[in-house]
Amino acid sequence: MNLEDIKAVGNLLAKPQKIVIVPHKNPDGDAIGSTLALWHYLKNRGQEVRIIAPNDFPKFLKWMPGNEQIMNFERENSQSKTLIEQATIIFTLDFNHLGRIGQMEPVLKESDATFIMIDHHQAPSDYAQYMYSDVLMSSTCEMVYNFIEFLGDDDKITPEMANCIYTGIMTDTGSFKYSSTTSRTHTIVAALIDKGAENTKAHNLVYDTNTPTRLHLLGCALKNMVILKEYNTAYITLSQDELDTYDYQKGDTEGFVNYGLTLHGICFAVIFIENKEEGIIKISFRSEGNFSVNEFARKHFNGGGHTNAAGGRSDVSLQETTEYFISLLKDYKTQLNA
Ligand code: 5GP
Ligand code: MN
Questions:
Q1: φ/ψ (deg, to 5) at 303
Q2: Which residues pair with 46 in a beta bridge?
Q3: CATH code at 3-207
Q4: What separation in angstroms does the CA of 250 have from each of 66, 167, 182?
Q5: What is the location of CATH 3.10.310.30 in the chain?
Q6: Domain with CATH 3.90.1640.10 in the chain
Q7: Are the C-beta atoms of 170 and 29 separated by less than 8 Å?
Q8: Ligand 1 probe mutation, 32, 92, 96, 100, most atoms within 8 A of CB
Q9: Under 8 Å CB-to-CB from 283, ≥6 apart: which residues?
Q10: How far lies 237's CA from each of 40, 42, 260, 320, in Å?
Q11: In CATH, what class is 212-336?
């Protein structure tokens, strides 16, 4: 975001607006943390503002300050549509194109509000009048911190906002270990703790929330793991039957994909999760090093994301999907052995 844009956005926010903030579908810690932090900030500035999420989000995020006011477009459909129709500004956070918000896409496309994008995914599309897009950022939460600082308001970051921003940075950086974590990230995190972020509490509330059935589901996932040594690849499958057996709850499979990468020599890890209701296989891709899962997901699985973390989907069966996946790998053998 250049100086001119910051001034323009500052001027817009100096007047009373009707604001809607939207995270991506299946919102994660960064999506919920960033939208909530921005919501607190705008509300404290006296703006009329609501967060509308495309669908529900996991229980382990339902402690974050303000989470109870997040509207669910699926559940509160007509009220959500009215708010979007009346909005003068729509912030879209933590996603790069409107296809990432599912059923909300046509409704947002109808709106003549001013769109402001804050996001760190690759290849952003250009629906927003004001774009703060930076793929080098660890998280959208880090960008929301910067955004508030650009507006000269970092001294207005409350403990509630600090907790939300801290949590999103924590979840999107794998607790500050991914390569997107910079000294600037740590500087911001330090400032957030000074402003009231409760770091230990955030870790406990997000990560120490296992249920026995989730751990059993993890056991099942790890048992299903297939290691393809010649491609330095490990993949996991979970069928709908397996999810049902272990009483799957939203968010239960979060982080499972990362186990593949903890194997020595493995640089590409994938999880395929069957979703009978949507009739798709949801896929998560992770890599270590230069292999771009963003490009792989974009090219073969109708998805995208970042160089080392991306997602996608498949419309054929679980078995056909994994067979297709394996058939693709031979073209990547050199890259995967680099
Ligand atoms: P996850 O695997 O944790 O769902 O997502 C990893 C990263 O890829 C996140 O940044 C997420 O926003 C992005 N992502 C996940 N699924 C999709 C998808 O279907 N399409 C695109 N473009 N990005 C995705
Ligand atoms: Mn993010």
A1: -135, -150
A2: none
A3: 3.90.1640.10
A4: 20, 19, 31
A5: 212-336
A6: 3-207
A7: yes
A8: 100
A9: 270, 271, 272, 273, 297, 301, 303, 311, 312, 313, 314, 321
A10: 39, 42, 12, 12
A11: alpha beta
Taking Cα atoms as reference points, which of 144, 163, 141 lies closest to residue 153?
A: 144
Q: What are phi and psi of 124, to 5 degrees?
A: -70, 140
> Ligand 2 centroid to 230 CA: how many Å?
31
Q: Is the CB of 284 under 6 A from ligand 1?
A: yes
DSSP of 2-24:
-HHHHHHHHHHHTS--EEEEEEP
Distance from Cα 202 to the centre of ligand 1, integer Å: 23
| 8 Å CB contact between 54 and 73 | yes
CA of 148 to the centre of ligand 1 (A): 26
| pLDDT tens digits for range 33-86 | 999 999 999 999 999 999 999 999 999 999 999 999 999 999 999 999 999 999
The residues that bridge with 136 in the sheet, in sequence order, are none
| ipTM confidence | 0.94
Near ion ligand 2, which residues have CB within 5 Å?
30, 94, 140, 172
Write out pLDDT tens, residues 133-156: 999 999 999 999 999 999 999 999
Token pair, residue 253, equals 């499979």
Q: What is the pTM of this model?
A: 0.93
Which atom of ligand 1 is least distant from the CA of 24? Answer: 12
Do residues 287 and 252 lie in contact, with contact meaning Cβ atoms separated by under 8 Å?
A: no
295: tokens are 């490009």
Which of 145-165 are b and which e, b meaning 16 or more Cβ less than 10 Å from the residue's Cβ?
A: bbbbebbeeeeebeebbbbbb
Distance set, CA 323 to CA 1, 89, 121, 220, 230 (Å): 43, 45, 28, 20, 16
